[in-house]
Each structure stands twice: as C-alpha cells, then as structure tokens.
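Severity: low
Component: inverse-folding endpoint
Summary: output formatting inconsistent between runs
Steps to reproduce: submit the following structure tokens with default settings.
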C-alpha cells in the first residue's frame, strides 16, 4: 500500500481476538446456580437474559465488522483508532451485563447499558463515514455499510428505550437492545 494507507489484515485479526475474549468473559461472568436444581437455574433468568443480549450484540457487531472489512481495500490510522475506541466501548459489555443482571430494574444500570450501545452505533457511524472517504470507488462497501438500516434505525430504537426507561420502565432498554439485535440478524440473513 502507498504512504498513509494500510491493508486490513492485522486490524481484523486484532478485532477478532478481542471480540473472542469479550465473549469468553461474558460467559465467565455468569453466576453459578446455588444448587443443581431447576429452581436455582430459573432464579438466574435475568443473568441469562442479559448474557443472551450481550452475546448476540457482540457477535452481531463482529459480523457487521467482518462484512465491512471484507469490502475495504485500505484503511488509515484514523480507522485504526476508531476501531480501538469501538473495542473500548464494546469491552464494557461484560461489566455492564453483570451490572444490569444484578440490578434489572435500576434506571442507572439500564441507562448505562443502553448508552454503551448508542456509543457503539455512533462510533460505527463515524467509522463508516471515514471508510467511505478512504474507499470512495467501492460501491459494494456503501451497500454493506447501509448506514440507515445498520446504524440509524438501531439508534432510534435505543433512544426510544431510553425515553421509555425515564418514563418508569427501566427494563425497556434491555428489550430495545434485544429488538435491535434480532432485527439486525434478520436483516443480515436476508442479504
């Protein structure tokens, strides 16, 4: 590659490794049932629900990242730092998942959880814009990024969840996170 541009190989490998670690930490954070009984397992349903959402979010972000970088010819230092910032925000998911699982009806826990997803979307939007500037001649890249479906609509759903949470239903944020992930998975399977 010339001058300021690089290939994506090392960035993709680094990103894959970090996502694998985050997903591993997610499962390690799941509490063990108090006893080997169905009641003890059901008592942890909130933890399992939070884990499921967070796992799907991490794998969904990984898939989106893979689709994007499969169509990117070059990156620069700005894109690398955007990815590092993205990984910083994604790495908070295991911590926030545990926080929400321990406090499922806490407005603060739910807001922090929702804000993390909003920050992910903001960073992805910023990164998408940068990648389109660096790779202007790749039509498929702009289709793969699909800013409206991949970033704008989920952000609107997250914001709706925040509004509903402030109206007295904190758990709405987790439900909105799940809705956006399911919507994204269905959308990606259609394409």
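Observed output (run 2 of 3):
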């Amino acid at each position: 590659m010339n001058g300021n541009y690089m290939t994506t190989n090392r960035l993709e490998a680094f990103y894959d490794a970090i996502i694998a670690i985050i997903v591993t930490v997610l499962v390690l954070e799941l509490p063990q049932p108090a006893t080997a009984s169905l009641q003890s397992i059901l008592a942890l349903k909130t933890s399992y629900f939070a884990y499921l959402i967070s796992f799907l979010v991490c794998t969904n972000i990984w898939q989106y990242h893979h689709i994007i970088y499969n169509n990117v010819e070059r990156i620069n230092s700005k894109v690398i730092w955007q990815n590092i910032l993205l990984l910083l925000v994604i790495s908070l998911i295991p911590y926030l998942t545990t926080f929400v699982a321990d406090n499922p009806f806490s407005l603060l826990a739910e807001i922090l959880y929702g804000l993390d997803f909003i920050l992910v979307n903001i960073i992805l939007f910023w990164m998408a814009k940068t990648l389109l500037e660096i790779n202007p001649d790749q039509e498929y890249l702009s289709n793969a990024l699909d800013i409206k479906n991949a970033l704008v609509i989920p952000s609107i759903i997250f914001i709706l969840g925040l509004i509903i949470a402030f109206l007295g239903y904190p758990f709405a944020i987790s439900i909105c996170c799940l809705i956006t992930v399911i919507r994204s998975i269905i959308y990606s399977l259609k394409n």
